[in-house]
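quick one before i forget lol
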Amino acid sequence: MTVAKVYGKAMQAMVNKQVDFDSDTIKVALLKDTYTPNQDTHDYYDDLTNELTGGGYALQTLTSKTVTYDSGTNKVTFDCADVTFAGLTATDIRYAVFFGDTGSGSTSPLLCYMDFEANQDVTDQDFILIIGAGGLITLTTT
């Protein structure tokens, strides 16, 4: 299972009302293995490099988004439906990056990313991000 890693400034962006996971448009981008994530300094979409191009690739929008709090475990869970990049042809796919889409790369906050830990190649097939039963992001409040 691939676990999402939170960008350091994501919670700051939420607290400062730059992004609302429930109601704002949240998108996901696919990046090649030549991107190097930096959880401390990457804060907006314009910090991303080596995003896929061509081959049927397009940013995807998250659906069925929820934020829940479990008082028994003191956890906040950000969840969404699985994401499908339909009919994709690409090589060296390594990361999926989730961000709040404001329409401008310099103001679209990065939330988290998945590292597939190995390059993925597809030829005219659906590339599906499975969001596990534990949600996209789980934060512990204790």
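fyi The longest strand covers residues 110-129.
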